């Protein structure tokens, strides 16, 4: 990340949503201008529900020039017009995802605590790698726990963008920004914010900016 660039807020949706009310809430969050990228991350739902969610959310992202990344499913992502896909352990491999998505779409990969895996997929052409979890999270059971040092090492030796994920809030984001994270991935820190998700998104973006002044 260049010194004159702020780390971006990479917002993840909750794993379960009630589409109609969530769509209105999401629109308000995106209208804050704080979100730089959105990942649709639904768990234990049908393919049809995923497609319906994309049909609702994608136009909002297009109107605001925010990339929409689908978690897990490159097949649905490509056919539904998403900007990219994010794959992790147990999902499609990077090679499979890239073959489906093509070179013009984003493919990001969860690398947890493994710089070795990150180097492999980075050399193959991954658009970003994600490390975490940095802090305890209620969204999912973290496979690994890492420290900001992994970001420092990564950004020293490669230009492939890195994403920090796992339990991140406005109160604990600073060490990750200082370590060189290009994007800060957040779920609960926005959606569970006591003053509402709009306030949560603004707070994290402000904390990122304050760290990098």
Automatic annotation (TrEMBL):
Domain of life: Bacteria
Record's cofactor remark: Binds 1 Mg(2+) ion per subunit.
Residues that bind 4-amino-2-methyl-5-(diphosphooxymethyl)pyrimidine: 39-43, 71, 110, 140
Cofactor annotation: Mg(2+)
Start and end residues of each Thiamine phosphate synthase/TenI domain: 9-189
The protein's enzyme class: transferase
Gene Ontology MF annotations: thiamine-phosphate diphosphorylase activity
Catalytic activity: 4-methyl-5-(2-phosphooxyethyl)-thiazole + 4-amino-2-methyl-5-(diphosphooxymethyl)pyrimidine + H(+) = thiamine phosphate + diphosphate; 2-[(2R,5Z)-2-carboxy-4-methylthiazol-5(2H)-ylidene]ethyl phosphate + 4-amino-2-methyl-5-(diphosphooxymethyl)pyrimidine + 2 H(+) = thiamine phosphate + CO2 + diphosphate; 2-(2-carboxy-4-methylthiazol-5-yl)ethyl phosphate + 4-amino-2-methyl-5-(diphosphooxymethyl)pyrimidine + 2 H(+) = thiamine phosphate + CO2 + diphosphate
SUPFAM superfamilies xrefs: Thiamin phosphate synthase
Annotated metabolic or biological route of this protein: Cofactor biosynthesis; thiamine diphosphate biosynthesis; thiamine phosphate from 4-amino-2-methyl-5-diphosphomethylpyrimidine and 4-methyl-5-(2-phosphoethyl)-thiazole: step 1/1
Keyword annotations of the record: Magnesium, Metal-binding, Thiamine biosynthesis, Transferase
Binding site for Mg(2+): 72, 91
EC number: 2.5.1.3
Residues binding 2-[(2R,5Z)-2-carboxy-4-methylthiazol-5(2H)-ylidene]ethyl phosphate: 137-139, 167
Family (UniProt): Belongs to the thiamine-phosphate synthase family.
PANTHER family: THIAMINE-PHOSPHATE PYROPHOSPHORYLASE, THIAMINE-PHOSPHATE SYNTHASE
Protein function: Condenses 4-methyl-5-(beta-hydroxyethyl)thiazole monophosphate (THZ-P) and 2-methyl-4-amino-5-hydroxymethyl pyrimidine pyrophosphate (HMP-PP) to form thiamine monophosphate (TMP).
NCBIfam families listed in its UniProt record: thiE (TIGR00693)
Matches recorded under HAMAP family: TMP_synthase
Name of this chain's protein: Thiamine-phosphate synthase
Origin species: Thalassospira tepidiphila
Underlying gene: thiE
């Amino acid at each position: 990340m260049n010194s004159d660039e702020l780390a971006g807020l990479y917002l993840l949706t909750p794993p379960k949503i009630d589409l109609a009310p969530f769509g209105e809430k999401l629109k308000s969050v995106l209208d804050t201008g704080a979100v730089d990228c959105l990942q649709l991350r639904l768990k234990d739902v049908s393919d049809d529900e995923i497609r319906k969610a994309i049909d609702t959310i994608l136009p909002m992202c297009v109107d605001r020039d925010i990339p929409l990344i689908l978690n897990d499913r490159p097949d649905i992502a490509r056919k539904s017009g998403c900007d990219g896909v994010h794959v992790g352990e147990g999902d499609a491999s990077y090679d499979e995802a890239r073959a489906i998505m093509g070179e013009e779409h984003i493919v990001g990969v969860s690398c947890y605590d493994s710089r070795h895996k990150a180097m492999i997929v980075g050399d193959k052409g991954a658009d970003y790698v994600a490390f975490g979890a940095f802090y305890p999270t209620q969204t999912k059971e973290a496979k690994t726990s890492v420290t900001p040092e992994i970001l420092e090492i990564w950004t020293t030796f490669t230009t492939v963008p890195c994403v920090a994920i796992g339990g991140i809030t406005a109160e604990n984001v600073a060490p990750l920004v200082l370590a060189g994270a290009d994007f800060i991935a957040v779920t609960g820190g926005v959606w569970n914010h006591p003053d509402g998700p709009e306030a949560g998104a603004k707070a994290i973006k402000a904390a990122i900016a304050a760290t990098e002044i």
